[in-house]
Amino acid sequence: MLTLQRVSRNFGGLAALNAVDMIIPKGQVIGLIGPNGAGKTTLLNCISGLDHPTSGTITLNNKPIHRRGAHRITALGMARTYQNIRLFNEMTALQNILVAQHQQGHSTLLHSLTQWPGHWAEEKWMRQRAMTLLDQLGLQQVQHVLASNLSYGDQRRLEIARALAADPQLILLDEPTAGMNAIETEQVGQQILAMRERGITVLVVEHDMALIAQVCDAVYVLNFGQILAYGTPPEVKQNPEVIEAYLGKET
Amino acid sequence: MWGLLDSLLQPILDLATQLLEPLLERLATVGLSEPVVQFMLMNAILGVSIYLTLNCGMFSLANAGFMAIGAYVGAILTTQHGATLGEALLYGMLVAGIIAIPVGLPVLRLRNIYLAIATIGFGEIVRLIILHFDTLAVEFRDSKIFGPIARPILKLMVEDVDARRLEITLGARGITRIPVYTETAHLVVFLLVLSYFLYRLHHSRMGRAMAAIRQDERVAASQGINVVYYKNVAFVMGAMLAGAAGVFNALATRTIEPKAYGFDKAVDILAYAVLGGLGNWLGPILGGLTLTAIPELLRELREYSGVVTGVILLLIIVYLPGGLTSLMIPSFWRNGGRYEFAKRVTTAGVVLVGLVNVLPYQIDNGRILGYEFWGLIIGNMVIVGLLLWVRYTRQRQNGGHFSLPLMGVGITGVVLFIALALVGKIDHLAVGYYVHLIGMALVGLGGWISYPAEER
Ligand SMILES: Nc1ncnc2c1ncn2[C@@H]1O[C@H](COP(=O)(O)OP(=O)(O)O)[C@@H](O)[C@H]1O
Ligand SMILES: [Mg+2]
To answer: Regarding beta strands A201-205 and A170-174, do their DSSP bridges make them parallel or antiparallel, or are they unpaired?
Structure first.
């Protein structure tokens, strides 16, 4: 589904990514782990079009996407969450979801001005769909709360709901459980498994090895911008190089 | 088509004129004559024009330039071609909008202060081109390369294209003897239609996308929103509105000159939006109306009107960063717990009392208020003193310290005013009286809310 070939990204002299090769097969949940500063977020930025690789190619369903703008990549069915939560803070939870359904809608300003019947139907449909999503993530109680006033856990969940709202085939999760307690982490795990049930491919950056072991089909290990190891979660866990990378540079 | 539209609009305009008549008479008695009211309405449109771009996260100061374009298109069409207001408006908006496209495409890549500087540059270029348009036009007409393109365009602006000297914008002198077509009713109807447009925009897919771009452009893009497209749409819409305000302006003042649309005007337009607040489309309208009215209301202080406006703006930015309309947004009241809420209620009360006392007393010798000067001076001093105390004691965790005095002032104020009215010391119950009452009541309410729950 998603293929990266020799993707590099340099910031000035620093090679945040160095010739990364990666394959994310359709329908699988792939983990991405590595010490802080390894380049995981940079990699996600390059895939989602917020940043562009200095060299190398990225293809999604055989279409090259490494030169595309973010909104055109979203149109191909990709969505993501952010490590440092980036919700639209002046909007309510519900409005955050409505914005994310931008590409599902078609009504223009003219439809809204004339109160075209189709416009109403679309608004209603969007709201219903948004409510279903909020329901799924246990956010129905706080639908009218401004995103900035939500609890930390709710903000993380809303990020996931917002990514799902775009109806993606591939979803990128950047440390979705950071700062969450064990129960909340467990719930996120259930959400990821539910995504796979629905045929969504997942790339998840995560530090919690238990969660990785629970949900991932395979794991990539990134260190200093390079792929250090690849394998099933138990394999990776026993890989001496990986253990050294983690022990040598505490996360 | 034109005739049909005319026959549809005319009854609405007539009705509006009729309805406005008593209001305009009333406003004239407080120093807001009809021309002033017209300027207030034009500036409200300008406030909206900059709001459209700010609402999409763009700090653009190009609006005075687009206003100039609208004004000159309107003036040339009416003086040279006998165009009607409707035609002038249509073409003024179109030309401003079309020019906005090639300007916006490169310029909107810039952000924040860089965008502001570039758009100020655009405004200056427009002003200079208008200033030297007549000589430039002759140059282009006589040039071998541009002549064939320039001629047909110039033909739209002047009858005799081959004259030795062209007189189109008339440089620094400006265009004079422009027919006066703008009526207050036109502006009111335009503003009403605009309000409907803004209301719908906010509740539409496009409006949500623009709000998302303002809050986080990059996340908006990865949410599937075409940022460049919507920014340009907002920029063009803002330009068209500024163009419309320019047309109205030209057809209201008889004379226009380039210096009226310079940097000063661009800053004024920004001030309308800042004063009114950007959280809500009503803000820039309110801001445009108030900021234009204030210098007229404070007639005695007219010499210092610039200072007064500056002080008001400063106070708003410091104490009400969301602008006047932030007072109307529910979350403004709810956020931050009980003491914060109490403080806001008190602030609102003091703002009301302050507004009604300081502003209209000056202009109408107390006629709007209906009571004596000394009473309100003392009342205000007490309130302002209390407010400052509340602000500076920083006793947020222990509201009880100021809740009793606030309640005292509020209740005394309310009782005193009702008593004064009963014994006939207040000769007529004008609006100001009620506003004052509400303000006092809010001050008292603020005290009550902040009173520690266990003692209530
Ligand atoms: N915009 C940027 N400019 C310069 N350096 C950056 C930028 N973004 C990330 N980096 C650097 O790239 C490296 C990888 O960062 P990041 O991708 O955030 O790591 P991770 O998400 O794995 O913790 C870090 O050394 C970081 O300082
Ligand atoms: Mg990271």
So the answer is: parallel
